[in-house]
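Researcher: Checking consistency across runs. Here is Aldehyde dehydrogenase family protein again:
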Amino acid sequence: MDTTQTRTLLEAIAPSGNAAGREILDPATGEVVGTAPVHDVADLESAISAARAAQPAWAAAGHGERSAALHRAADAIEANAEELARLLSREQGKPLNGPNARFEVGACVAWLRATADTPLEPEVLVDDGTTYAELSYRPIGVVGAIGPWNWPMMISIWQIAPALRMGNAIVVKPSEYTPLSVLALAEVMNQAIPEGLLTVVSGGRDVGEALASHPAIGKVMFTGSTATGKAIIRSSADTVKRLTLELGGNDAGIVLPDADPAAIAEGLFWGAFINTGQTCAALKRLYVHEDIYDAVCDALTAYAAAVPMGVGLDENNVLGPLQNKAQFDIVSRLVESAKASGARVLLGGNPEADQPGYFYPATLVADIDDTNPLVAEEQFGPALPIIRYSTVEEAVAKANGLEVGLGASVWSSDTARAREVAALLQAGTVWINEHGAIDPRVPFGGAKQSGYGLEFGAEGLKHLGQPQVIKGV
């Protein structure tokens, strides 16, 4: 049941008067979570106008005042953390516990505070007595952000926090699947920051397209599919917008022959199945050396079989449903293609036909060919293919064989050897003996068609500023 505060948040973000609204359903139960406003391009224009009016004073306030406001926003989220987590669980489907809803809300607080506290001083480039040159970063103006449905609050904060810190205003367009979470997050944050700086426009594709091409938007941040990212690139061309794009991934993990199967099983599982596999930088294809292949399969199966899946508000569960039917159908299709090819299903692969919600069981598939669609396509769900290899060179070639490169990982008892292999992988981030662990101090971004631009840390702040060099004697 909703708490009183959760109901108050839902009432605050619900459409008012005769405004259009759309019911949002819980992907675990099919029950109505709340009603989201359906904004249109006229609403977007109003949001951009308010942002343009508010931004100059915010830019003039300076880093210190802006950082203090981000800390106040973090305080406000902490004060509403349980209500936000429960809303997130019901709308997105992820459980309260484990690396899920409460974790995501806590990450919003952590990223706000880290972004507020990251130093970014002017850089003296040359000072030799005859020439002086200094590099600093000025506000861009108004930033547009388009977010996904898998981590709707956390990824929104990844966009909002650095934009505000650098003196910009921001207009956010959330996924149509999870607008309530982002609307509620902004409702809470706006208690702590000046009016007009942060607006959420909860509309459809037409609103996203208008945001990406709007001449008053100086930069677009987008997390989502590669296909949509390419469309944003095209629509941004006429106004030469700055872009940060975190696009699709199909992250590879390589287990070297000296790894300890029992020691790495838990890390492999959560690398692949965090958020029920619905994570851009999740482990999506696992290459295991033939010497320890069966042992890794056995250890991973034993761990996965004991992880509870179910409705997110049940405190016992740590895996939830897929967020929407379209994603459920993608995972189902890919697992069925693996079965048809003769691959061996170690666990799962058999969703219950009559149960409510989009639950797909944690699925492990062995003895599968590298060209199978479950390996070659991004499944974005709880189904992990495990591919046998003979030489490290073979594994690296297969890991690098796709056009995406968001993340990758190497698993070994020899850290020095793991680093050597990591350096051969074509990915924006390569983890050693873990997968997908991110840190607000450490830059994050993709390689190849997984996007460009960096987020997090000082480098991430720079991508939300306009570089300016001042040079003189």
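Researcher: Does this match what you'd expect to see?
Model: One thing to look at in this run: The mean pLDDT is 96.
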